[in-house]
Amino acid sequence: MKKIEHIGIAVKDLQVSNKIYEKLLGVPSYKEEEVVTEGVKTSFFQVGPNKIELLEATNENSPIAKFIEKRGEGIHHIAFDVEDILEEMERLKQEGFVLLNEKPKKGADNKWVAFLHPKETNGVLVELCQEIK
């Protein structure tokens, strides 16, 4: 793993939260996009090398909707930038971690993504990210 890629925060209302984070971070969102397959709209902020991803559910079956229903708004996941997502997924499987998806899938911000089960990582949902070239 190369670095923390971003921290994902589940929110009820993306537009309201965008205003909060614009004031908090002193910069506007640099990108908003919808990931239809995950039932989520995202908004990204960058401050120096650090990124924050706000996530709003687009339907009640979305993982974000379920997260907010169970835990409320807040930190949803931490994402790590990896050089080779397939290699990293295999390494982590060999280490005994449970992957939530067997193959990487297209995520937001032009990334291939895969997730580790939070029961294996002290309750933290971990996302692996690799830039799509």
TrEMBL record:
<dbReference type="InterPro" id="IPR017515">
    <property type="entry name" value="MeMalonyl-CoA_epimerase"/>
</dbReference>
<dbReference type="GO" id="GO:0046872">
    <property type="term" value="F:metal ion binding"/>
</dbReference>
<dbReference type="InterPro" id="IPR037523">
    <property type="entry name" value="VOC_core"/>
</dbReference>
<keyword id="KW-0413">Isomerase</keyword>
<comment type="similarity">
    <text>Belongs to the methylmalonyl-CoA epimerase family.</text>
</comment>
<keyword id="KW-0479">Metal-binding</keyword>
<dbReference type="InterPro" id="IPR051785">
    <property type="entry name" value="MMCE/EMCE_epimerase"/>
</dbReference>
<protein>
    <submittedName>
        <fullName>Methylmalonyl-CoA epimerase</fullName>
        <ecNumber>5.1.99.1</ecNumber>
    </submittedName>
</protein>
<dbReference type="InterPro" id="IPR029068">
    <property type="entry name" value="Glyas_Bleomycin-R_OHBP_Dase"/>
</dbReference>
<feature type="domain" description="VOC">
    <location>
        <begin position="3"/>
        <end position="131"/>
    </location>
</feature>
<dbReference type="Pfam" id="PF13669">
    <property type="entry name" value="Glyoxalase_4"/>
</dbReference>
<dbReference type="GO" id="GO:0046491">
    <property type="term" value="P:L-methylmalonyl-CoA metabolic process"/>
</dbReference>
<dbReference type="GO" id="GO:0004493">
    <property type="term" value="F:methylmalonyl-CoA epimerase activity"/>
</dbReference>
